Amino acid sequence: MHTDPHDESEEHESPTSHDHNHTHDHHHHDVSEPSVAVLTVSSSRSVHEDPSGDAIESALHAADHRVVERELVGDEHDAIRSRIEAYAAAERVDAVVTTGGTGVTPDDVTVEAVSSLFTKELPGFGELFRRLSYDEIGTRVVGTRATAGVVDDVPVFCLPGSENAVRLGVREIIAHELPHLVGLAQRA
Predict the structure, then answer these.
(1) Tens digit of pLDDT for each residue in 75-101?
(2) 115-132 in b/e burial notation, b at 16+ Cβ within 10 A?
(3) Residue ranges per domain, the chain?
(4) What is the DSSP annotation of 85-151?
C-alpha cells in the first residue's frame, strides 16, 4: 500500500486548520474603538489651519476610532519626543498618528525623535505606505521616511505632512490595522 506523506490523518492537525484557528484566536484581542492622539509637526501651520491633521481626524472618525488628543508642535526634536512620551504614558491614548517631518530637509526630525523611542519597529507600515504611494507620486516616494513602531504599549505611526499622504496612510492602512495592533500591543 502506497502512503502519501502529504495526506492528513485524523491523528495530525493540518497546518492549514491550525493557522486558521490561530488567526481567528489572534483577533479576539482587537480593541473596538481605539483612542488616538494626533500630532501635527510643523513650524508653518497652526492648530486652526491644519488640513493634514483635519484629514487624519476625519478618516479616524469614519473608521469609528476616537481622537482624544490633537496638538501641533514645531519641527523640534525634543518637543516631538516629549509629546510622544507623554502620549505613551497617558492611559487614555491607545495609539498616536503624527503628520509632518518625515522628509529629508534639515528640519525633518520626526522620524529621529520618534524612532529612538520604539521598543518594537513595524517596518511593514513604511514599506506598504511607500508601495501604495508610488501609484500617486511615482519615484518621489523615495523621499518619504514614513515609519511606525510601538512606544511602550502604544503603536505610533509617522506620516508625511501632505493631505493626500495622510488620507492614504489612515484610510488604506492605519484604520484597518489599528484595532488589531492596539490589542496586540496591550496584551499582558
Answers:
(1) 999 999 999 999 999 999 999 999 999
(2) bebbeeebeebbebbbee
(3) 34-186
(4) HHHHH-TT-SEEEEES--SSSTT--HHHHHHTT-SEE-HHHHHHHHHHHHHHHGGGGGG---EEEEE
Length of the chain in terms of residues written? 188
pLDDT in tens, 96-124: 999 999 999 999 999 999 999 999 999 99
Q: What's at 138, amino acid-wise?
A: G
- DSSP classification of residue 27: G
In the block, cell 502620549 appears at 87
Domain at 34-186, CATH class: alpha beta
How would you list the strands of the sheet with 35-41, edge to edge? 66-73, 35-41, 95-99, 154-159, 147-151, 120-121
The pairing of strands 154-159 and 147-151 is antiparallel
Cα–Cα distance, 183 to 166 (Å, whole number):
23
